[in-house]
C-alpha cells in the first residue's frame, strides 16, 4: 500500500469513527455565550444575575438579554449530545443514573417518597415526560397576569419546544377509554385547558427528539448573555449599609474545581438577582444565605440576614396515584399525550414503555419504578 493510499484509508476510518460516535447525537445550537465556570473571572459585574438554568431561568435569560447584561448560572452541564436526554426511547434512563455527573439528582423526602431534582441546562424539561399544555384562564386571572401577554408568551415558547404528537395505538386506547367512562367532551388536539378529554402538546418532535427550555436560549442576544455551566452558587451576598432591609448585591459560586468566583450587580435601581433554582433549590439557597426561620438558621450556624419564618416551610408535592398494568408483550415507548381533565380538577394520564415494566431490572428508575408497599 502506498503512502497516499494509507492516508486515504486512515481518513476514511476517522470519518467512520466520527460518525459512529457523533452522527446519532443531537447537534448543539451555536451558543457562543456558554462557558464552563472554570473559565469565569474571579469577579464580574452584570445587570441581572439568574441562579438556575431551568424552565424559568432559560426564558428569563433570553428575554432580559435583549436589553441588559445577564449572567445565568447553572450547576449542571449541557443536555445536547446526551442521547439519554434527547431520545424518547431512552426516557427515564437519567432518573436511574445516580452518579455525581447525572443530569438527575435523586433524593428521598422525609416521608419516604423518591423524587429527583434536575441538574442540567434546561432543568426538568430534560427529564420529564414532555407533556405541554397551557394554564387554565381562571388561573391566569387569579394570579393577576395580563391575559394577552400570557398568550404571546405561550406562542413564543411553542415556536421552539411544542409539537402536535403522533397518536398511536396506546394513546388512542387511552383516549377511547376516557371517553367511554364519561370524561367528556372530547376536545381534540389543543394546547388550551378544557375540562374533558384532549390531546395535548409534546416537547418531543416527529423524530422522537426532545426539545427543552435550553432551546429557548436561541432567542437570546449573544452579546449580552453569559451562561456558566457547572457553576454551583454557594450564597447570596447582601449589603445592609444605609438601608432598612438587606439588599442583594451579588453571589458566590464555585466551579467544577472548587474555585470560588463572585458576580456582582451593576449599579442600578432595577438590577436584580433572580433565584430560579427550583422549588427545593430556591429556598435552600435563601436559607444558606441567611434568609429564613431564625432559629433554624442559628441551629446550623448560619448568620441571620432576615428572619423570614415562611422560607422553606409548607413544601408539598402534588398527590399521584399510579396504576401499573403489565403487558405480556413488548410495548412502544409512549409518553403523555392524552389527558382527561375532570371537573374535580384531577388529571388522568397514561404512558407505556419498557421502563415501566414490573419485572426486575438492573436499573432503578426511582419514582417511575413499580413498587409494592
Quick take:
GO terms for molecular function: flavin adenine dinucleotide binding; oxidoreductase activity, acting on CH-OH group of donors. This protein has 373 residues and is of the alpha/beta class.
What Rg is obtained from the alpha carbons, in whole angstroms?
23 Å
Distance between the termini: 68 Å
Strand order across the largest sheet: 1-11-4-3-15
What is the averaged pLDDT score?
89
Q: Indicate the percent of residues in helices.
A: 10-25%
Overall morphology = globular
Structural class: alpha/beta
Question: How many DSSP-defined strands?
Answer: 19
Strand content: 15-25%
Describe the main β-sheet briefly: 5 strands, parallel
Tally of helical segments: 9
Poorly predicted regions: 1-25
Cofactor: FAD
Keywords: FAD, Flavoprotein, Signal
Protein name: Glucose-methanol-choline oxidoreductase N-terminal domain-containing protein
Domain Glucose-methanol-choline oxidoreductase N-terminal: 278-292
Describe this structure in words.
Its cofactor is FAD. With 373 residues, the protein is α/β, with parallel strands linked by helices. The protein is 23% helix and 21% strand. It contains 9 helices and 19 strands. It has helices spanning 3-22, 57-64, 83-86, 93-96, 137-143, 147-161, 169-180, 278-288, 294-299; strands at residues 34-36, 43-46, 48-51, 70-73, 104-108, 114-118, 131-132, 186-189, 196-199, 201-202, 225-229, 232-239, 247-254, 260-265, 272-275, 291-292, 306-307, 338-341, 347-349. Strands 1-11-4-3-15 form a 5-stranded parallel sheet. A 4-stranded mixed sheet has the order 2-14-13-12. Strands 8-9-18-19 form a 4-stranded mixed sheet, covered by helices on one side. β3 (48-51), α2 (57-64) and β4 form a beta-alpha-beta unit. The longest helix is centred in the first third of the chain and has 20 residues, at 3-22. The radius of gyration is 23 Å and the shape is globular. The termini are far apart. 31% of the residues are buried.
Amino acid at each position: 500500500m502506498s503512502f497516499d493510499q494509507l492516508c486515504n484509508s486512515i481518513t476514511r476510518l476517522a470519518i467512520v469513527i466520527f460518525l459512529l460516535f457523533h452522527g446519532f447525537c443531537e447537534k448543539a445550537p451555536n451558543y457562543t455565550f456558554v462557558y464552563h465556570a472554570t473559565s469565569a473571572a474571579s469577579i464580574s459585574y452584570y445587570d441581572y444575575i439568574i441562579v438556575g438554568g431551568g424552565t424559568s431561568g432559560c426564558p428569563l435569560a433570553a428575554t432580559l438579554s435583549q436589553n441588559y447584561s445577564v449572567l445565568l448560572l447553572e450547576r449542571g452541564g449541557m443536555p445536547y449530545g446526551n442521547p439519554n436526554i434527547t431520545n424518547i426511547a431512552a426516557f427515564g434512563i437519567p432518573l436511574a443514573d445516580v452518579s455525581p455527573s447525572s443530569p438527575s439528582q435523586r433524593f428521598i423526602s422525609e416521608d419516604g417518597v423518591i423524587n429527583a431534582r434536575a441538574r442540567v441546562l434546561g432543568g426538568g424539561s430534560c427529564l420529564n415526560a414532555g407533556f405541554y399544555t397551557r394554564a387554565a384562564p381562571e388561573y391566569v386571572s387569579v394570579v393577576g397576569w395580563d391575559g394577552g401577554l400570557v398568550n404571546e408568551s405561550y406562542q413564543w415558547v411553542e415556536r421552539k419546544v411544542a409539537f402536535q404528537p403522533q397518536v398511536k395505538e396506546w394513546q388512542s386506547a387511552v383516549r377511547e377509554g376516557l371517553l367511554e367512562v364519561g370524561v367528556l367532551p372530547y376536545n381534540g388536539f389543543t394546547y388550551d385547558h378544557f375540562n374533558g378529554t384532549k390531546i395535548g402538546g409534546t416537547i418531543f418532535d416527529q423524530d422522537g427528539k426532545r426539545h427543552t427550555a435550553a432551546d429557548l436560549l436561541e432567542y437570546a442576544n449573544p452579546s449580552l448573555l453569559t451562561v456558566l455551566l457547572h457553576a454551583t452558587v454557594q450564597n447570596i451576598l447582601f449589603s445592609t449599609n444605609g438601608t432598612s432591609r438587606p439588599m442583594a448585591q451579588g453571589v458566590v459560586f464555585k466551579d467544577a474545581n472548587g474555585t470560588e468566583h463572585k458576580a456582582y450587580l451593576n449599579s442600578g435601581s432595577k438590577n436584580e438577582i433572580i433565584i430560579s433554582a427550583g422549588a427545593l433549590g430556591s429556598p435552600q439557597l435563601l436559607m444558606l444565605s441567611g434568609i429564613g426561620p431564625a432559629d433554624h438558621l442559628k441551629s446550623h450556624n448560619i448568620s441571620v440576614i432576615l428572619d423570614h419564618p415562611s422560607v422553606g416551610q409548607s413544601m408539598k408535592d402534588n398527590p399521584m396515584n399510579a396504576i401499573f398494568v403489565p403487558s405480556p408483550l413488548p410495548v412502544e415507548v409512549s409518553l403523555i399525550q392524552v389527558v382527561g381533565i375532570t371537573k374535580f380538577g384531577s388529571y388522568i394520564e397514561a404512558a407505556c414503555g419498557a421502563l415501566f415494566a414490573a419485572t426486575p431490572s438492573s436499573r432503578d428508575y426511582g419514582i417511575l419504578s413499580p413498587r409494592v408497599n
